[in-house]
Amino acid sequence: MYIPLRCYSHGSILLSQNKPGDIVKRLDELEIDSCAITDMGNISMSIQFFNAMNKAGKKPILGMTLFICNDYASIKSEENSDCKELIVLCKNLRGWKTLLQIISYTNRPEHFHKVPRLSLRELKEFDNESLVFLSDKEVIPYKILNNYYTVPMPKPFYMWPHQAADNRILLCNKFKMPLIEATNRLGMPQFHTNEFYLQSYEDMLKSFNKKDLQQTIDIANQIETFDILNNPKLPDFQCGNISQNEHLRELCREGFKSRQLERHRRQEYIDRIKKELTVIEEAKLAGYFLIVQDIVNYVKTKGIVGAGRGSASGCLISYLLGITEVDPIKYDLLFERFYNSGRNTKDRISLPDIDLDVPSQLRSDIIQYIKSKYGQSCVGQMITFQTMQGGRALTDVLRHTTEMGFGEIKSITKLLPEESKIAPQLKDMKNRLGYSSIIRWALEKTPKKFLEWCELNNEKYTGDCAVQFEQAIRLEDTNIAQSKHPAGVVISKSRLDDFCPVVIDKDKNLVCGLVMDDLEAVGGVKFDILGVKVLDKLMKVKSIVSNKETQI
């Protein structure tokens, strides 16, 4: 037996298509009970990998591939542009926190140059005792680090040999070349061999001896079992000499007096607010509502706030605090659709979700207000990923592996439905199959449209383009680009890099390097502040009317 110590996920964008669930499935096949995730320069898939491994009863090893430059990272000369790769693994929770600090350091604008990077001298300044460093060949300078090993580490960019062709599609997109040109020009071994998959012990013995493979187990045994998940790290909202719970109750009482409530339903309001306050206080979430109300009050001094969207309008607390403008009692809206204590467990508290619609022209100003109130290092926006969906996946596969023209490819992909129109069915498919696919849905539900190219019968794909359709299905939901979330803002009581990586975005701004759900899993408290252009127009109309009234 051996432990894979250099496995990539689709967090290594356009280099790997591995999703955490696929990694676990392959480990099950090989009867391997542990594995390391070592994405290039980031840990964006670590939380999903951690959860998937734990759910399967396997030991997750968290790490990444560091980019090491020759001189200090702040020196951005041509001579200091080439970087070597160094694998780093977290020995324990302290190591995880150290890795967060390292990532945040490498992503500072003064250090980032083509990739997030640092030198060995800078790396030595961090807590090396909590980390394990690996390379697959002897590199003398790395020996200055504690816990450094030379160990056999093949790179699994995909899980099964047949996925080599899928991986080449991603590489073609990365280098913006057709498959034939990329194969001939790039000289990358991924285009000429199918060996970058997660190999069995028997396969590994063909290249390495038993002593080498035992070393991977010895290293894995150094890794402790630890938990990186946390309850929400809500910042402390200052309420003077009273508690947050009492301050929230005071604001609700003021709302009862100022709002024009339906008098004949007074008892309903009383019963409802008692119930809501009990649920919120038991979950220790009074501060969440106080923070949202404070943001709303600030926006109102500058412009217009949306009246409320989604299930948040079913919360009477939000209405009494002026966060929303819809009376949930009057319109018989349910609080349970917004929040209920059944969502919480002994170890995890679920967060409410109140979306704030604000004028897009004010959004940057609002975020700066939040940073000034809670601290620059405690507030940040977050990343999101663009994924390869049905039409995009099928287009990329067909254009790289067939002689079809753009027009013919377009005539096929336009037959696929929009994701939003079949979202519930895709969710059902994921529950049934473990994955969702727009292309497969179309083959199942509208088969006649695709008879010329592909059919699905008894789990077998047949037809002139069956190989391409099946390949595109495998590639669906693979990350292909990283961007900034359009609405999400994280506010924390501690520095962001205490619990999540802080990375640089394409505009050279620092953002939280985890997606929304993963941020919440490690303790980040997410607030949705969405810029809406129609509110800009309403502000302009309001300004015009006000000016005319002044002139009159």
Structural account:
With 552 residues, this protein is α/β, with parallel strands linked by helices. It has three domains: 20-160 and 197-222, TIM Barrel (Alpha-Beta Barrel); 244-384 and 482-542, no CATH class; 390-475, no CATH class. It is built from 20 helices and 14 strands. It has helices at 20-30, 46-55, 93-106, 120-123, 164-175, 179-185, 201-204, 210-222, 244-258, 266-282, 286-302, 316-320, 363-374, 390-401, 406-413, 423-433, 438-445, 466-475, 516-521, 533-551; strands spanning 34-37, 59-69, 83-90, 118-119, 131-135, 148-150, 355-359, 379-388, 455-457, 460-462, 478-491, 502-504, 510-512, 525-532. The strands form four sheets. Strands 1, 2, 3, 4, 5 and 6 form a six-stranded mixed beta sheet that branches. Helix 9 (244-258) packs across helix 11 (286-302). The longest helix is centred in the C-terminal third of the chain and has 19 residues, at 533-551. The termini are far apart. The mean pLDDT is 94.
